[in-house]
């Protein structure tokens, strides 16, 4: 007991914070600048191994959605994305039903997810879900838990530092380890829905989207399947957030219409 107490207590003085929107208590021992640095390094590393799509309608769609989602994320959660330089890449891999976002604003979509998203609205919901994981610092939270678990298990801090990068990668759903927890997935669904709606994408599309994703089943990676609430619970939760999301959406649509009018 004493060992646990000694480590947890000082961390909690520095490490306890709250997630945006939901106010959920979080335990994070990593600074945002450390997190951004790791995100940037990871991004460069991953892209060395992948082939990206750099033109054509699919690429343009990802750029368009990314720009709008990033703008809305900054509007709704300005403190969480301060100093972010957003970049959205489309990775050419038809077997990978996945997408991710890293601290600092570097994001990727795999071509394999496009047959499941089908529409631009649904793609926006997926991308906003990823961006929401970053905004709510879910990777840093997972890493902090692993670091503490490592310390408690007797792993030296110096060894832990050497594996930080891998932990963060895993913590953001890239690679095999550390899927997000259920609470984090639910939080990303909620924040992501608001962000997509504020960006002018129809939040009602989330229901058929997550049904299709559940059907994609074994093809979909841990990020979208293993720790998510059951399809039924998830859809019930989304219905609960839809009134607020629809308000954001209606405002965005009205704003777009007004903008079009002034340009005529
Ligand atoms: Zn997720």
What does this structure look like?
With 264 residues, the protein is of the alpha+beta class. Helices cover 61% and strands 8% of the residues. Strands 3-4-6-5 form a four-stranded mixed beta sheet. Helix 3 crosses helix 5, helix 5 crosses helix 9 (182-198) and helix 9 (182-198) runs parallel beside helix 11. The longest helix is centred in the last third of the chain and has 33 residues, at 231-263. Zinc ion is lined by residues 129, 133, 180, 185, 188, 223.
Bound molecules: zinc ion
**Through-space gap between termini:** 70 Å
DSSP E strands, number = 6
Radius of gyration in whole Å, from Cα?
19 Å
Topology as a string of helices (H) and strands (E):
HEEHEHEEEHHHHHHHH
Question: Helical region count?
Answer: 11
- Write down the overall geometry: globular
The overall pLDDT average reads 83
Q: Biggest β-sheet, characterized?
A: 4 strands, mixed
| Portion of residues within helices | 55-70%
Strand content: 5-15%
SS content category? alpha+beta
Strands of the widest sheet, in order across it, are 3-4-6-5
Uncertain runs: 1-12
What would the keywords be for this entry?
4-stranded mixed beta sheet; binds zinc ion; globular; 6 strands; disordered N terminus; alpha+beta; two-stranded antiparallel sheet; 264 residues; 11 helices
Topology readout:
Blueprint: H1 2-15, E1 16-18, E2 25-27, H2 32-48, E3 52-53, H3 57-76, E4 87-91, E5 99-102, E6 106-110, H4 114-117, H5 120-135, H6 138-152, H7 157-162, H8 164-171, H9 182-198, H10 206-216, H11 231-263
Helix pairs in contact: 2-8, 3-5, 5-9, 6-8, 9-11, 10-11
